[in-house]
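Need MarR family transcriptional regulator's 3D structure for a figure. Predict it.
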Amino acid sequence: MPLPAAQARLLATIEAQGEARIGDLAAVDHCSQPTMTTQVRRLEDAGLVTRTADPGDARAVRIRITPEGIRTLTAVRADRAAAIEPQLALLPPADRRVLADAVDVLRRLLDHAATTPGRATRQ
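Structure prediction for MarR family transcriptional regulator:
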């Protein structure tokens, strides 16, 4: 069964952070903690992430991607690349370079956002 886009995005965020608390994931995704708990539970039920106790806070847990989660995310990325590559091949080389540069800028912005916890979340 294909992974829904929102779950794939969350799994990619967890992979990028190494491990994360529910509250930090909620802040990055601009959602409430209960909503994020539900999303993480779905990934956990599928065997894509694990929860471990946070040694610094007995009330909190840390979320980490599993080997199966890495395999799934790799497959999702390969599927997406296979879908878009034929379209990119239609672009002239100069346009592909511009697009690649823009993707690099967007990636830096998203990486910064993903590692900046504590922003306001929607309730």
